[in-house]
Amino acid sequence: MSYLDMARSHVKELAREAFELAEVVVDPDGDLAFPFGTAVLYVSVVTDGRLVRVWARAADGIAVTKPVLREVNDANAWLVLARAWMHGGALMIEGCLPVETLRAEDLRALVSEVGGTADRLGALVATVHGGKVALPVGPVPGAE
């Protein structure tokens, strides 16, 4: 078993614990996908198993204008674990943490910040500036 395989297995178990899941489904790329409000976020193990990357395409079809960039910049001012940026017409949200010291509560905090930001900021930018979000409405992990 490679280091990457071990890291993916570790992150999968942490996700199961963090969100009290009976089963964790891994997509063909090796990522864990979670719907989060209007966003879908992915938990990926990158850099040969050294980092966990939680990321989401918060909105698509957005024209990159000064007002949009102001919204993104304002979001970055209050983000702690994550960052937001425009890539072409996509609003991206991402955060990374080292796998080696990762705990379930760390993964939950990262998923919460990336997912919450993708849900709120993606919906805001898509509504105000045009574009679309991944889901019309969806569940928030851990919210009952």
UniProtKB/TrEMBL annotation:
<dbReference type="InterPro" id="IPR054343">
    <property type="entry name" value="TY-Chap_M"/>
</dbReference>
<dbReference type="Pfam" id="PF22551">
    <property type="entry name" value="TY-Chap1"/>
</dbReference>
<feature type="domain" description="TY-Chap central">
    <location>
        <begin position="5"/>
        <end position="135"/>
    </location>
</feature>
<protein>
    <submittedName>
        <fullName>YbjN domain-containing protein</fullName>
    </submittedName>
</protein>
